[in-house]
Amino acid sequence: MMSSNGDYQNQKIPLSFYEENSILNNVITKVIIKMIKRLLASLCLFGMIIPTALAEVTARVDKTEIVPGETITLTITTDTNSESPDIEPFKNLFDVVGMNSSTQTVNINGQISRSRSWIMALSPKTTTSSIVIPPLNVGNEQTKPITIKFIDTPQNLSVNGQDILKIETALEQKSVYIQQQQIFTLRVYIDAPKIYKVNQLIKPTIPDLNFQFLTEQNYEKQINGIQYEVIEQKYALSALKSGSIHIPSYALTATIRDKNSLQNKTVTSNELTLEVKPRPANYPANMPFLPAKDVTLSEQWSNPSDNLLEGDSISRTITITATGLTSKQIGTLSIASITGIRSYPENPQLHDNWSQLLPIGTVIQQHVLIPTQAGKITIPEVKIPWWNTQTNKLEYATLPAKTLDVATNPALHNSNSNKASSNTNTLPTIPNIIRKVESPYLWVWQSLSAFFAVTTFIFLGLWLYSRQQPAIIKQEQPIINPKTLLDDIKRACQENDPQQARTALDNWAKQQPENLTDIMIRYTPLAEAIEELNKVLYSEASSTWKGDKLWQAIQTLPPKEQTQSSESIIPPLYPK
What we know:
The chain is an alpha+beta fold.
């Protein structure tokens, strides 16, 4: 109750008042909690939506300027676990020569981020001035287009107006003959302090030219106040056809520092044109064309050619040397057959000397010659045409003709002469014998004949006995079984393999008491079979070989003693 002066004194608040306020507080609390829950749910939902809304896909290339034939690397990156990019839009513009993917996860202070990348190596199908990589779809996102430019003019890498990387090419001569060798030079100039790394030299493909690497040297050279490191390479170049041949630019890729990043750059060289002249009209049409600075011919004989007998062998070695040509360009020398001589060529030896930059080719050919008749035999002149590239004139390298004076070989003619003399003395001997029978001194002749007959039989018996008792006991030597060697020849002949047959024949001949040339001289079938084998091995024209004839000749080869006791000691080398 209130006092007279208006102050509350000992006034009590009813219980119902507290109950009403408690219910109100509970309602307010529940409303606040519900609002907080809705706010938190909204924040969580917003947090889930933001990564999706901010998902981004990017595309970049390692270089935007290239030369024809060069590849580029395209990298596509997304920060979501998306499907692979759709590359159909650029398949008509590029060949995909390689592709791989990778996934990266990064955790920074509890914040986890993920990304996925696709890396593709692309080779352009066109060489127009520029080509555009179109937008590519990656899930619901799309990349931006990228323009690639082709470098079609010589281009150096410059910084502040100064070249820090450049490449140049040069020809020793701008006009040459077909197959003529000349020097091609490639130089790379590098301002080393400003170049991070030199990567790759890209060479053009030129099917009508043949390049042979010669030398590489490094040196320093100052140009316009800049000290360059120079890499110089030299090549021997020869054209395979006549006409105008275009030599495209060479390209060089390098990595440079650009502020705080590294960039790949490409520089290109100058282009060249080579005029190739055909073989001159006055050059012999049926001879190989040899454009060179010098061509020489020389020969050597194994023994003096003025002391030969029928059936003797002599080796002739011919050497061809050409300055400015390789040994393969020279080719082999074709020697015509010579009447009265059998010729057996050996495999030619090829040598190249590059010490003087231009090649010095050498071809060495050896022939084994066997005269088959007595008298004077003329070896004809050897003449090789070649084109002097310094005077632009046709010249000839020659070996003069040579005459061999072949004497009669008595061993080849004794048999025939003995047989003829015995036939001519048969008839006149008969009357002489009759007259001697009528002589009173017949008993003397009979006594001497009997004496010599007895002594002959005695010496013959002693000789046979001594043959059974060797005077010196020799140590046993390893026995070489000739059957194994014959089996090798037989197998090669049955398989019609000329190379194996020649190898087996040489091994067999080493085990014989006489050399292969002597065997061929005394047995014509073997000589003819070996001549056919050599023609197949050393002839430029391809042909097949049958080994039946060689194996038949080996089987029917008579022993040396049997041949010496026959009516004809050595059969003629050229049977009619």
